[in-house]
Amino acid sequence: MSEHEEKNAMLYLLAGVGLGAIIGLAAGMLFAPKSGAETREDIARKFKELKGKTEEWIAEQKAKRQAKAVAEEVGA
What we know:
88% of the residues lie in helices and 0% in strands. The chain is mainly α. It has one domain. The two termini are 25 Å apart. The relative contact order is 0.06.
């Protein structure tokens, strides 16, 4: 298995774990003994948190790729 294929496999694994976590969170919140308004507020808050974390992770990955590309151009 090449390095590229290994990275793709890891990415798919992480995406699957993330999707499972989101589904589990949503199911747990929907079946919790809270009012609809409280549940919607909780879901909105968690979504915003997850979105922020995802955006941070994406920015970190882009920065790593750019740093790697610069290092390759320099010949390091």
